[in-house]
Specification:
Elements: E1 2-5, H1 16-30, E2 35-38, H2 48-56, E3 59-66, E4 72-80, E5 83-87, H3 88-92, H4 104-107, H5 113-124, E6 129-134, H6 144-150, E7 153-155, E8 174-176, E9 184-189, H7 201-205, H8 213-234, H9 250-256, E10 260-263, H10 264-272, H11 274-279, E11 283-286, E12 290-291, H12 300-310, E13 315-319, E14 321-322, H13 326-331, E15 336-339, H14 340-344, H15 347-352, H16 354-369
Parallel strand pairs: 1-2, 1-11, 5-6, 6-9, 9-10, 11-13, 12-14, 13-15
Antiparallel strand pairs: 3-4, 4-5, 7-8
Length: 372
Amino acid sequence: MRVVVAPDSFGGTLSATAAAEAIATGWRRTAPDDELRLLPLADGGTGFVEVLHAARGGEWHELQVTGPFGDPVAARWLRIEDTAYLESAAACGLHLVPRERRIPEVARTVTSRGVGELVADARDAGVRVVVIGLGGSATTDGGAGMLAALGAVPVDEDGAPLSGGGVALARCARLEGTVQLGVQLIAAADVDNPLLGQHGAAAVFGPQKGADDAAVAELDAALARFADVLAARFGVDVRDEPGAGAAGGLGAALLALGARRVSGAGLVRDLVGLDTELDKAQLAITGEGSFDWQSLRGKLITAVARGAADRGLPCVVLAGQVSVGRREAAAVGVDSAYGVAEHAGSVEASMADPAGTLAALAEHVARQWSKS
């Protein structure tokens, strides 16, 4: 039996590569004769560029950029021919914010400036296209920090530059300065959320970044004002566009700059050759840290499941935790979903040995799904 093992990363515990290897380790205990094709994937969030490098090679460019707190962090982008690939998470990722600092005061103030610095470095290196993977960010500043690094600085009514992240945008009057790009921008979004409202950047993703109800309300109001500023400056209102709320609203700023939005999962699917592998398979396995309702809004599991369904293949999800019902899962092509935490007995047990407990789950699932 030929099995494609194509997971995303598992939050902050396992990279996509480590997750694929753990699944393969457990599967082989039950079905050693099965042929496993390991294909670690990403959907625009953390691990996006590393997955592309593993599949396609390319040239790394390393530099120091402004991190979410304003201090320098090491980041890099990948050049493949005349295209640059970078992750927003490399400069402003949630992994750069220790858990004890994921509090409302921090959620209100972290910046995406380093993303703009990565884009500028790629532009200056002479690429023609810059692909920005959106996901896994710690910020909710609507891409204001990124725009400032590229030359369009948010200012208040007196012309004073604004700093301090998303909450400062409540005082934004306009953008001063000129953005000179000279490159085509592509926003590889892992979600299709709008910028504002109950499905927007602040309400959906703010709490995982430390925002409480009051901070979410403040950030959403500030982003609404910034959306007006973007519309006035660039002549396009992007607040309701799918993906505008990705990466704390970075999607909105990129769309305002004229970026073309693509599915991050779909882009990776094409670049790493997932369809070719599925053509030769009898089963697809995918997974991520949490298989929840957000997974159904354009994330990687959906791309793998639909690719399998197009070929009449069963698709099985192995996730840290599963909160999607059978009917919802089936609607996107998932035949069965299994949670590591449930199999291990608790979230704490699964987190104590992420690779080992994922392998144990894969060993169990193989007894049900392998034909060997």
